Amino acid sequence: MMKTTLALLITLLGSFVVTTSAATPPRPNILFILTDDQNSDTLGCFGGKVLTPTLDKLCREGMKFTRAYNSSSVCTPSLYTCMTGQYASRCTTQGFMRQNPSGRQSNVGFNVLVEPGSWNVGRVLRENGYRTGFVGKWHTGTPPLLSIPSDANLRDPEVAKKLAENQARLSEHIKRAGFDYAASVYRGNLDDHKLDALKFHNMEWVTKGALDFLDQASDRPFFLHLCTTLQHSPQPNQSIAGDPTITPAGHLSSPLKVQAPRATISQRLKEAGIAANMGHATWLDDGIAAVIKKLADLGKLDNTIILFFSDNTTMGGKGTCYDGGARTPCFLWGKGRVSGGTTCDRPIQNIDFVPTFFDLAGIRPPTEMKLDGMSLTPLLSDGAAKWRDAVFLEIGHTRAVSTERWKYIALRYPPEMRQKIDNQTLGRPAYHMDTSLNLQELALKRHPGYWDADQLYDLQADPEERVNLAKDTRHAQTVAELKGRLKEWLAGFKTPFGEFTP
């Protein structure tokens, strides 16, 4: 009798589990598309006179964010934040800490790395049952690589062998950082490879890496971080006519046929009445179209969340806290999970992406993983949901707070640098970032208040941030309030910044 009763209970319990599981929506796949230096004029959905039908459709059917910000407006710290959900100045890698020791004002730039052993979105999702993949531009630290002369012939067998070995080392490094799969990887910008021959983008190669990942799909949900080199320099439009077999892993045996042929771009632009020099926007769109088609063919598109974002823009503010570098195109698409055909004007930031992915996947991050952002999920169904009213920015020697109307920027040099500036012994311009980017010169020309220690801009009346109102007594109260908010934010860090922290 007892055995019969126990068997009945087990049967009932098994039925209950099956029923509950069937009623639970499957965890979504996540495709995170991160482009490079992508300005709004290279996307039709953000007003550009370009041919980008696939990205426009995704944006139109999803939620378009009009006030999406990078917390740091150059690629490396932006990528770091996208993968960790942390402000870049929280980085604790040995290189960053050596440059920014405890008690010293931190300098956020190209010194922020994602290393094996650290917590990041790929590692956490993998440890929670997701199959994770990375394709494209890494730019957050590399293992030791074999040296190759800058003028090397990529077809030389010895050079080809070294290129293949470097690709394998970089892919393995990324896997140790938390990804099951890594392919078609660029260590950073094309110039970072230090090879004269490697001056052409290869969107098809990046697309191929993504398609191969999807072809290996299983029943497990996946996370694919797709980081393109487009639209970064060298001039991406010129690469369309470049050698289609060149990759950082060496020459391909033949051009890849994984997306619409490059040769058709010119004619399609002509038929659409689009300028020929905007072909790179279509080239990128063609690659994304191939990935979307693959998801549809595999029957996985309807259960996939797609986030599109750019690491920064180049509208006169890259490497600064100005909107021309920190404010970027962004949209989120997801059938049944994202309100379609909607626009959100609330301020969001790349610190929010990792918390959003975890939320959608039903995952709690490790207790030791600090997340600075908020999950976007409340906004996905209700654009009027309770949300923050400001975002904070950091790059080089500047920190900023931006509200719907106002932006306050503080430019503070560390004491030793300040002394050299005063003594005129620094020997170089004291840009907002120490790196002498030509885009810093562009920002300097576009923003007359560039050198001012305190800057206040009315983003509604002056969206290009040309008129610094910080010294206008009529706005003294606004400056004081925003300084107070900046001070509160900076109190959460262990490093000082000017007079804002002890």
Q: Would you identify the CATH H-level superfamily of the largest domain? A: Alkaline Phosphatase, subunit A
What is the total number of structural domains? 2
CATH-derived architecture of the largest domain: 3-Layer(aba) Sandwich
Question: Are there runs of 5+ residues with pLDDT below 50, and where?
Answer: 1-22
The proportion of residues in beta strands is 5-15%
Description of the structure:
The protein has 502 residues and is an alpha/beta fold. The chain is built from 16 helices and 13 strands. It has 2 domains: 344 residues, Alkaline Phosphatase, subunit A, CATH 3.40.720.10; 109 residues, Arylsulfatase, C-terminal domain (2-Layer Sandwich), CATH 3.30.1120. Strands 1, 2, 3, 4, 5, 6, 7, 8 and 9 form a 9-stranded mixed beta sheet that branches. A 4-stranded antiparallel beta sheet has the order 10-11-12-13, covered by helices on one side. Strand 3, helix 6 and strand 4 form a beta-alpha-beta unit. The chain is globular and about 65 Å long.
